[in-house]
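Write out this protein's structure.
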Amino acid sequence: MSARTPSEQVIDELLESIWTCREKGSRDVLEVLRCAHAQAERAALEALAAEGLVRMSGECVELTPQGEDRAAGLVRRHRLAERLLSDVLGLSDAHLEETACALEHQLSPEGAEGLSRLLGDPLQCPHGKPIPPGALASGGPGQAPGARPIPLDEAPCPSRGRVAFLRSEDHERIHQLLSMGLAPGVPIRLHQRSPVLVLEIEQSELALDREVARDVHVWLEED
């Protein structure tokens, strides 16, 4: 009988655990299972091996190239989420890990790249661990290589796109924009430019003056 396929959450947690254990110099199966946040057993690792995500040899486990790519994306999103929660929102270490775990699964790959730009492309998490490099060198979803995000106040009307990143020296403004739902990766539709910009976000309308809209950078999408 083939091993039962574990849930996506368990797969992600195990891949992350293998990555972080490797950083500490361990490839031990029991250590990987102990460090995973989700409850998992050896059979789950064997199922990942059957899927081609890991290789197992006795009591050692390592990532395949396919597993490496997936784990790198997960670790990148987790550590960027930690930087957001620590640097922008001022969360203490006591709440950092749990909240970052939840947030990493909500971030799309393009959202993670926008978040990285928002944070100034950090190289390390708040605990000094390296943040894996992003897979998206340039361009947003559906964009040609070399495309660049533009400030929202320069977007044509009507137009649609996604938030790439927020940029302002005013941390309170960043808090305000995030609380409005304007996080990296969020889809928006602009349908009014004057006297204020009016955009649709998550089935609701939001009005921004030009000064505030200038701090929101977006990838434009073709209709």
